[in-house]
Each structure stands twice: as C-alpha cells, then as structure tokens.
Design a protein that fits this description.
CATH topology of the largest domain: Tetracycline Repressor, domain 2
CATH architecture of the largest domain: Orthogonal Bundle
Mean pLDDT: 80
Number of strands: 0
Helix content: 55-70%
Oligomer: single chain
CATH superfamily of the largest domain: Tetracycline Repressor, domain 2
Largest sheet: none
Low-confidence stretches: 1-7, 185-201
Radius of gyration: 21 Å
Order of helices and strands: HHHHHHHHH
Length: 201
C-alpha cells in the first residue's frame, strides 16, 4: 500500500535531485571540469553517487541534460527579448561567453551522436530567429544575415575557446567576432570604384 501523497513526494524528491545534479554539473564544468567528474558532481549536488547514476547512467546522458537545461534558459531569454530589438547583440554575446566558460561541456558534447547535436543546433537557431528578424527590421543587424549563419560564429568562438586557457582573451575574441559578423568587414554597401584602388606594384 502506498500512503497518500507518498508517491508524489518521491517524484518531487526525484525532480529536486535531478535539478541539483544538473546545477552541480554546470558548476563543475564551468570550472574546467574534473578528473573525477561524476563523483565531484554528486558531492556538490549533495546526493549519493548511485543516485546520480540512477538519473544519468553515463557522462553522455548528463551532458545532454545539461545542454538541454541551458538551451531552455536561452529559449526563455530569447522569448523575453522579442519586443526589444537592441537586445539581440547582448543575447548573442551572452551565448558566446557561455561557450567559452563551458568549454569542458563542449568537449564532452563531442561524444554525443550526430542526431542529438543536430537537434540542439536546430533549437538554438530557432531561439535566435525572432530576435534576429526584429533586430534586422530595426536596423541593428545587417539584412543578409540568416539564423543559420550563427552556427559559423559559434564554431569560430568554440575553436578559440578550445585552443587556449586565457578566458579573458577568448571573451575578447568572441566580442570581436560578433562585431565583425554583425557589422561586416566593409563599412560601405558596395566596393569602391576601380579607379580608387591603389596601382599595382
């Protein structure tokens, strides 16, 4: 016999433990990870290691859960900015800085299957689509940028983040990448006339 409310209480405890594990994983991975990743996450979450593995059988399952949680936060932030066109650039900068801070998570994500990675990419593009269109309509972003182009920017910043340990330098590079991509390399819409080019040596 199950006492009234006992099963509901267990479900609440399970949800609370799961969220505690995900939040602890974010904390550990933001600190560049740990050699004893799962035990350290369990310790910070305040749960037994067996409890962690009951929710997440391996690192890939936990990695997918953390990315899903972070994507949900991005989707909420993007939805909240759909009436504020000037927030697109700060929103994009926040995501790029997150990629740098969570480089340990990005490294783990390389072990996920291609279908899962593709679904996460599609969710990210979808989250940015409305804020991007709004920013373009109000002249904040170049008109020819499409949501899929953002994946190129993410790949650029991810490459910078994984090749060095200087977080400040990586953030500066991310900010510069945003400026170059959104504003363009050339200030003019059309290239200068040929007669303005320097003579060939």
């Amino acid at each position: 016999m199950v006492l009234y409310g006992a099963r509901t209480s267990l479900r609440r405890d399970a949800r609370r433990n799961r969220m505690a594990i995900v939040e602890a994983a974010i904390e550990v991975l933001r600190g560049r990870g740990s050699a004893a990743l799962m035990p350290e996450i369990a310790r910070r979450a305040g749960v037994a290691l067996a409890t962690l593995y009951r929710h997440f059988p391996d690192r890939h399952a936990l990695t997918a859960a953390v990315i899903g949680h972070q994507l949900h936060q991005l989707e909420e932030a993007a939805a909240a900015s759909t009436d504020r066109p000037a927030t697109f650039r700060p929103l994009l900068r926040t995501v790029l800085h997150w990629l740098i801070e969570m480089r340990a998570l990005i490294a783990l994500a390389e072990g996920l299957d291609a279908g899962t990675v593709r679904r996460y990419q599609q969710r990210m593009i979808k989250a940015f689509t409305k804020p991007l269109r709004l920013a373009q309509d109000h002249g904040y972003v170049r008109r020819d940028l499409v949501p899929g182009d953002l994946l190129l920017l993410f790949a650029m910043v991810q490459s910078v983040a994984t090749t060095g340990d200087d977080t400040a330098a990586a953030r500066a590079a991310a900010d510069r990448s945003i400026d170059l991509m959104l504003d363009g390399v050339f200030r003019e819409t059309h290239p200068p006339h040929e007669d303005t080019l320097p003579a060939a040596p």
